[in-house]
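Researcher: Quick sanity check before group meeting.
Model: Go ahead. Protein one:
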Amino acid sequence: MTTDVKKVVLAYSGGLDTSVILKWLQEIYGCEVVTFTADIGQGDELGEARAKAEMLGVKEIHIEDLREDFVRDFVFPMFRANALYEGLYLLGTSIARPLIAKRQIEIARRTGADAVAHGATGKGNDQVRFELSYYALEPDIRVISPWREWDLASRTALIEFAERHQIPIPRDRRGEAPFSQDANLLHISSEGKALEDPAVEAEEYVFTRTVSPEDAPDRPTVVEIEFEGGDPVAIDGQIRSPAALLAELNALGGANGVGRLDLVENRFVGMKNRGIYETPGGTILLAAHRGMESITLDRGAAHLKDELMPRYAELIYNGFWFSPEREMLQAAIDKSQEHVSGKVRVKLYKGNVGVVGRESDDSLYSLDHVTFEDDEVYDMRDAEGFIRLNALRLRLLNKRGRS
């Protein structure tokens, strides 16, 4: 094992896995470990991460509240694109990784660290997302991925390692977890173990952010969301910061059973994976944003955005947030949002979100043109020439077939 690393910045949650990784790095690499814990709305007790890091002899402990940065600089730009991976997944885990990686690299520069480390396994997408981001931002950084190096291949081995090194393990975490979870302000995902068989419906105890749609209120909730330049800025007339706005939409959506998704997706590393996702606020935001675009975007721009979206979503899913192609697409998407401003009303009811009203000073919707009543702005006789011109190639094709 090469041990030429002097200082490493570890993405640290304070849980069993990353606590074992912390000690393993100290033991195997003989290096100083700097911990970085990001608060991106996961709801964990961050004080526990600090206490464990201190107990393990860490001198430089970084715990940062990045909730506003996360929503403003990562979630909102992604939602301007209406990004959905494979048509369904709102990319809740994917979009958090570049922010964590970015701060790790910044801390590495500031502390003089020559390496970074993460706790992602060798089977998943997160290892790719973290490491592509590291290398894009700091090409010569040393990356340590313990799950690809060590021989601690089971939870039993992790617990035995923790006990040997006096790493505290809460009683309720000693048993085998029925599934793994990842959470942030945008979503919570559950996968693995009890959820691996895609034929078996997930039990109700899996869901923590949303009530069952069957148990949601019998009366709908109507919410008005205001947009400026493609981003939401207010709920029911009350201005909110990005993180506060998403948190409020999460509460509204969760109470109405909105945002559940049972998905089998194609991982970038090649295998299929079954995940249970809860994204209540994001599900509302997607519907509202598309409703806002429906009256403010030109048809050509709207259709082009929909063509670009799958590629944009795939780049984020695969870990290419800091790639030039993602930035190019973002520039086009952001240009399209210049007039996406106004108000949208959505109705939440038993797991469903429906747009029921939209208005904007920049609206392209013309009642004068679409009315079924008599009007003076549209001459229906003009449609004849338009149809005949568009039918010309079809008529010629048909005549050739008869000859």
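Researcher: Fine. The other one?
Model: Protein two, sequence then structure:
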Amino acid sequence: MPTRKRGDDNIRKLTKVGKQSIAVTLPIEMIRELGWREKQKVVVKRIAGGLVVRDWRNKK
């Protein structure tokens, strides 16, 4: 497997899951820093130019 260039650590591809969903993998380092776990619920919010992913319990 080829190694990534410096600075490309956070570049991710969208992957088709099933017939109607798209998934993106997140860097494990970021997940660990946030204290998130597998199967944890998150909220995805649309903003200008992108998306925000937050813990569903966070009211902000």
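Researcher: One line on it for the slide.
Model: The chain has one domain: 14-55.
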